Amino acid sequence: MDARAIIVKLRDRQSLTEEELGWFALGLADGRVSDAQAGAFAMAALLNGLGDAGRTALTRAMRDSGDVLHWQMDRPVIDKHSTGGVGDCVSLILAPAMAACGVYVPMISGRGLGHTGGTLDKMEAIPGLRTDLDEAQFRAVVGQAGAAIVAASGHIAPADKRLYAIRDVTGTVESLDLITASILSKKLAAGLEGLVLDVKIGSGAFMKAADDARNLAQALVSTANAAGCRTRALISDMNQPLAPALGNALEVATSMQVLCGEAEGRLFDLTVALGGAGLAIAGLAGDDAAGAALIAAAIRDGCAAECFGRMVAAQGGPVQFNDNWRRFLPEATVIREITAPKAGFVAAMDGQALGLCVVELGGGRQVESDEVDPAVGLSDVAELGAWVEKGQPLARVHAARNGAAERAVKQVRAAVTLADTAPDLPPLVHERIG
Q1: How far out from the chain centre does Cα 61 lie?
Q2: I need a surface site. Which of 68, 298, 332, 338 has the fewest CB within 10 A?
Q3: Does 167 qualify as catalytic in the annotation?
Q4: Same domain, yes or no: 119 and 232
Q5: In 227-315, which residue ranges form alpha helices assigned H by DSSP?
Q6: What is the pTM of this model?
Q7: Pairing assessment for the beta strands 387-388 and 416-419 based on DSSP bridges
Q8: Integer Cα distance of 154 and 139 in angstroms
């Protein structure tokens, strides 16, 4: 086989065999496939598609291009993946909550890029906590705490790492088949028995249109199931931040408020819905609703918080983090209220603009090498449908400098639309697939 023949075949809309896709994935990993050939393959896949069988074959091949973990545990091994949004700190609550309900959660996560935050950045806002664990350390934390949230090693799906970087510079990021293979190859390499997917839709999501989100959810579910991992997806709303806070330490604080029984709201509700689906997949609940009740109980009775505390300590964070978490989290030097310029209902939010505001404050990155300030961001963000009087707070900005805070005030006011009539509020969960 050779890369050129495979590219020509895909260019001419011929179906590629499992063997051809397997060869190409290994070629991406070991360098036999050049950058030019990888770019040509990605463009042909974008324009012509791989088909259902081809998408599954590429996903498996990219999974098998590096290490694949195998768990021999006494309980199911389940994980969750989100396509990304703003104020989305579900993983910090969901992983320990599912662990408290009887599953192991080996969560391999990513860093923030663009307007969305990264789970690893949030975890690393906790002093001393490490996410760069080797396999033995990863397994030890999962066994001890029931869950771990770590970075992928360089040996996990190396074909995807190579192709992902090439897609970014060749205008092929939007390929549904390649998005699916990219997401699932890394998750399946973690050796999962089940996976629940949170596909976001709305102003703060990558997928803005309902059809795009549905197509991605269906592709992910069908491909993962065909690859042997029981999977279902929820399409959830991202027309406003999921939590009332954006920024790494601020989202950890919001997660701790939920885990410690101080708050519920939309973040709690979506965590419960996703966890319910995860427990149903694991066979620990008869259906999603029964699973959701178990997850809610684990959060409300403190069991999820206990699991989170064990996970934090096992990954190098403070042993007594749960007892005094406010003292451990970093705080910004400048905190300022963002007041409403007039009275009205919060009728719309530009979630992407809010996310980029946090990036500009220093709380995210535009390129992977950017440093992140864990303390900055937005808190106390008003919800869609809320009535605010002129001069009342829309949010609070947490910044390192006065100038940055002043710019953020203008950006948030521009991102929030106030109106005389209340908006029709979208459902939190738009659709369930699988």
Answers
A1: 23
A2: 68
A3: yes
A4: yes
A5: 248-259, 265-281, 288-300, 303-314
A6: 0.94
A7: unpaired
A8: 17
Q: Which residue in the list 111, 161, 187, 430 is annotated as catalytic?
A: 187
Phi, psi of 433 (to 5 degrees): -130, 130
- 203 is annotated as an active-site residue: no
Number of domains, the chain: 3
70 included as an active-site residue? no
Residue 379 falls in the annotated catalytic set:
no
Handedness of CA 312, 314, 315, 320 (dihedral sign): positive
Q: Is 82 a catalytic residue?
A: yes
CB within 8 Å of 211: residues ≥ 6 apart: none
The pair of three-digit structure tokens given for residue 286, joined into one six-digit string: 């008869």
pLDDT digits (tens, 9 = 90+) for 139-174: 999 999 999 999 988 899 999 999 988 987 898 988
Active site residue 369: no
| 217 and 136 together in one domain | yes
Is 198 a residue of the active site?
no
Domain boundaries, position 409: 331-419
Instruction: Give the integer Cα–Cα distance in Å for 10 and 329.
Output: 51
* Rounded-to-integer distance, Cα 322 and Cα 259, Å: 9
| Strand order through the sheet with 429-433 | 78-82, 194-201, 230-237, 429-433
Q: How many CB atoms within 10 Å of residue 185? A: 29
Spot the catalytic one: 55, 60, 80, 232. Answer: 80
Who wins on pLDDT, 302 or 204?
Answer: 302
CATH code for the domain of 37: 1.20.970.10
**What is the DSSP-derived secondary structure letter of residue 292?**
H
Q: Which of the following is catalytic: 56, 59, 65, 82?
A: 82
Q: Do residues 281 and 249 share a domain?
A: yes
Query: Is 410 within 8 Å of 368 (Cβ atoms)?
Result: no
CATH number of the domain encompassing residue 138: 3.40.1030.10
Query: Could you report the per-residue pLDDT of 306-328, keeping only the tens digit for each?
Result: 999 999 999 999 999 999 999 99
Active site residue 60: no
Please state, in angstroms and rounded to a whole number, the distance separating the CA atoms of residues 363 and 408. 12
Both 290 and 350 in one domain: the answer is no
* Residue type at 262 in one-letter notation: E
Q: How far apart are CA 340 and CA 372, in angstroms?
A: 29
Catalytic residue among 64, 79, 198, 288: 79
For the question of residue 81 being annotated catalytic, the response is yes
Angle 211-176-87 from CA coordinates, rounded to 5°: 70
